[in-house]
Amino acid sequence: MTTDDEVRAVRRVGAGLGEAVAAALVALVVAAVGLYAFSMVQWPAFNASNVTRALTTVGQVVAVALLVVSVLLIRLRKWPVVAKLASWVGISSFVTVTLGMPLAATKLYLFGISVDQEFRTEYLTRLTDSAALRDMTYADIPPFYPAGWFWIGGRVGNVLGLDGWEVFKPYAIGLLAVCAVVALVLWTQLVRADLAVGAAAAVTAMTLAYASPEAYGAVLVVFIPPVLVLAWGALHRSAGGWGAVLGTGLFLGVAACFYTLYLGIAAFTVVVMAVVAAGLAVAARRREGRRTLGTRRVSADSAAGGTGDEKSAVWRAALGPFVRLAVMGAIAVVLALVVWAPYLLEMLGGAKLPSGSAFHYLPQSGAELAFPMLEFSLRGALCLLGTVWLVVRAGSSRRAQALGIGVVSIYLWTLLSMAATAAGTTLLSFRLEPVLLAVLAAAGVFGFVEGGRAVYQALNEPAPLRTAAGVLAVLGALAFAQHIPTVLTHEIDTAYTDTDGNGERADQRPPSAVSFYREIDAALQAQTGRPRDESVVLTADTTFLAYYPYFGFQALTSHYANPLADFKDRAATIAEWSELPTSAALADALAHSPWRAPDAFLFRRDADTYTLRLAEDVYPNDPNVKRYTVAFPKALFTDPIFTTTDIGPFTLVTVDR
Fold this sequence. Notes:
single chain, seven-stranded mixed beta sheet, 7% strand, alpha/beta, 657 residues, 22 helices
């Protein structure tokens, strides 16, 4: 029979979901209107003028003012609908202006099309071209990298009629704004509403500053702190809480579809929580058992060992958190299969044992423990407040327990990553710093509020002290907010100096060789007579594959290559092709390639050779990539099946089969 508590819990979950949908719609409108407005003006480049920086600061002040109004209305208990709308608009406009205004004069997102952003754009381009789950580079194999963020972005680009590279920026900013506001709604279900606004704002600001270049990871970072509180509430209770179990399982499943590393740290933390919760449940049950045995005055032997019923009760207490953990895991697995099923089926179908080097990277930051709370900076002060609060309240606050376990888990993962170097790999712990900062930022807000209350009470509650504390918080928030573009200066500058898919640089400087890509694309389609996604191109200029959805014969580096793609063997085969004695021999080798052979080659010209600048994994060295050149003699392409076309610094060779 359904109890009143269960009915109230269901209603609360339903109301929360309704709020989340409404908040997401508001954020979507704010982001869309803001980005469209920014695009309607011809702004100067960020790296050549301070105009967009100044306007970013103005927009941030307005956004923070809306959040302050929201908190004041909540504290005064007036106009709750207005308070909610102000918080939703405030958070979403903060995201939109902080990222959108500095990038207003470029069509590219942070980091442009350089380094890691190249393969991300390639993936988005692939899934904009088609909704089918396909590898970002290689033909005929399922994707290895989670496709969730990219698939959604591809559908957005398809609906808007934009290419993958062009939809990247508005989609990344818009979805982050939506997720930040939905995370705020989740906070309101877990803590007092005014605290929720503060915590969500702090986490969002940290995410923008330190996680936003990885847009598909940033949308998870804003959720991790409140999800930790949600998960601990689900595991550390003896009854009820199945809504929290469902919510945690859904987050883990979405993480599996978006970013494997963040799934790893979230799942690891939840497992640690389950172990701690089981231990606490057992300890509590034994204490209760001892009290019961003491009142019954049983024998000393009975008191030491407990009755059979008592042992059974202890086991049941320990089992409860693990049952909930299993349910979370089952929900996550079902969701994860949406994107992982094709890859797993390929492996189970007898594919060659996969091999990859995705974990072969160890920068200095991955070889040290990060202690942001010891930095002399605004973020350091907030993290220090958070650390003190986590320690002081560890025994009395479930919020502090949840976030504290999260911090400990991150450090444990980092130590495990360092230890894994002895086995020739890592766990990429350096990428968890944004998560650590987000968790400590949330704790810092709670620490500031409770610390301010303690000082207020210790000084006999002078009325101006609350106002002073509020002013200090707002000033700190504004100071950190206006510093975010400075933190992202390199990423923003690269978006202006890289050449976009239209062959233009946003800083109005001469474009790079990318400006010839449009002509190359036209020649490729004319000579092959096939759609782009039915041709395989061997090139070292893999930005071409980021702008146009051709398949590649070889990926940018082994670290981004699908483990099923045989990266090393392909590299060796390319070298062997370059050393063949005749053009006929090359034609025959292509006909007998163990993989789908290139339909075209895109080279750079160098005297009597055509060159490819390829990459080799040299981990544990840092940098972990070594570049080398493979040169094909021009005489290898004299056979009639080859058509050669010079375009700018490139030579396009198509294969007629």
